Amino acid sequence: DAKTTQPPSMDCAEGRAANLPCNHSTISGNEYVYWYRQIHSQGPQYIIHGLKNNETNEMASLIITEDRKSSTLILPHATLRDTAVYYCIAYHGSSNTGKLIFGQGTTLQVKP
Amino acid sequence: DTAVSQTPKYLVTQMGNDKSIKCEQNLGHDTMYWYKQDSKKFLKIMFSYNNKELIINETVPNRFSPKSPDKAHLNLHINSLELGDSAVYFCASSSRRKLSYEQYFGPGTRLTVT
Asked: How confident is the model at residue A83 (pLDDT cuts 50, 70, 90)?
């Protein structure tokens, strides 16, 4: 699975959009981009995933560049409860192994 | 309803003891996992079972033995506990029948070995 690179930390004002970048320049054609987050002391939580097209669900939007070498997770209206570590993972979605490889992620601090 | 549950939530024990952590999922998933998160917050997969069959076994000491009595349960037994085993252990599950493959995690078990 491809390695991903994320900034170690980011701040965001409450109510504003949080844009979390991720680089995955070595991603292969059949690897999806998955985003998870881990709120302090809790288990990781799935947010969203995509292959080529931009995706949106009730939690967030995922923008993937046309060359698929980077992506951005967007939390449209960040709240204090969105403070967490966000993990971007390149994952072979149809793999038999199901092995998610977590990096250090981005610690997002949402401030009032 | 709790989707993925683990017991106990906290476990404090002495070196050399044997302990077990239990995991249950009520999502009807066919694949379950154990992850370890150490003090530096790195989250790393240990084992994965699909339909009670071991499919991932990372470089984990053989003191760790997963057991899956059925598709809804994956327990982790640890023999001869060492100080370095202190960590938070997360259970997760997913469905290979679904195209999305997202994993659902339990709340974690914080193991402290003294």
From this structure: very high
